[in-house]
Each structure stands twice: as C-alpha cells, then as structure tokens.
Design goal:
This protein is an alpha+beta fold. It has two domains: 10-61, no CATH class; 66-136, no CATH class. The chain is built from four helices and two strands, in the order αββααα. It has a two-stranded antiparallel ribbon with strand order 1-2. A hairpin with an 8-residue loop joins β1 (34-42) and β2 (51-58). α2 (71-86) packs antiparallel against α3 (98-107) and α3 runs antiparallel to α4. The N and C termini lie far apart (53 Å). The relative contact order is 0.08.
Length: 143
C-alpha cells in the first residue's frame, strides 16, 4: 500500500533540510545564467522506485508577461496564489486578490474533461466568501 510519510518518518527525517544559509547569493553577472534549480522526486502508484526530475530555470524560461506564459504555468500560478491566500496572502502583492486568482485560473482552464479546473474556480469563490464571513464574525465587528 501507499503511505504518506510523516515528518518523523525515516524517509523524511533523512532529507536535506534547506535553510537560508543553504543558498549562495547570485547576481546578474552569474555565469550559470540560472534563476533557480528545481528538483522534484515522485513515485508513481504501484512503483517500487521514485523518479527524480531536475531542471534549471534560466533566462530561456522567462516570458514577457503572465499572459504570455504557457497555459499550465498560468493555472499553476493561480493554484499557488490560492494556497498563499488561504495562509493569509502575506507573500502576495496587496493588489493581488481572489478576483485576480479567479481571472488567472479562468483564462488558463483549457480542456477540462472532468471539470476539476472549473471546480477550482468555484473554490476560489467559496474561499473569498468564507474569508468575508470570518471578517464579519470577528470580535469588535459591529453591524
């Protein structure tokens, strides 16, 4: 069977922990031309071994605007924004909110055979409503 490891499981506790001191500063004159280096490890259902994907993020990956980014990247950005908003949105621009996330996701839905992407857009509406409701229920809020 498959198991989701806990933070105390051997497979997780042996992982390299990244801290601010793990990273070296870089500059525009960095000869590697890398903005980041992404490593992703996954294991397919039923597989015995995991697969490691590694890829540098370079100038070649840069796009002129969010609208020029590939559909999958725009939708993934909307999902990441949604997750950040659920945590309070401190890492997002003050001008970027639920409507922006919804618009980004709607513009990048693409083929949606099972309706999951449309359901995600609906979740942004529900989260926005829940946030507004929570604000109304805070102590000190008067009608």
């Amino acid at each position: 069977g498959s198991e989701i490891p806990t933070l105390k499981s051997p497979s997780v506790s042996s992982m390299t922990r990244l801290t601010a001191s793990s990273f070296r500063p870089c500059s525009a004159s960095d000869p590697s031309g890398e903005y980041a280096f992404v490593k992703l490890r996954y294991k397919a259902p039923g597989a015995e071994e995991s697969v490691l994907l590694e890829r540098p993020v370079t100038q070649a990956d840069r796009v002129a605007s969010v609208a020029a980014a590939p559909q999958w990247a725009r939708f993934a950005t909307a999902v990441a924004g949604y997750g950040e908003m659920l945590k309070g949105g401190e890492a997002l621009s003050a001008e970027f909110g639920w409507e922006d996330i919804r618009n980004l996701a709607n513009g990048a839905k693409g083929p949606d055979a099972f309706g999951y992407r449309a359901e995600f857009v609906q979740l942004t509406r529900l989260a926005e409503t829940a946030e507004a409701q929570a604000a109304l229920n805070r102590p000190g809020h008067e009608e």
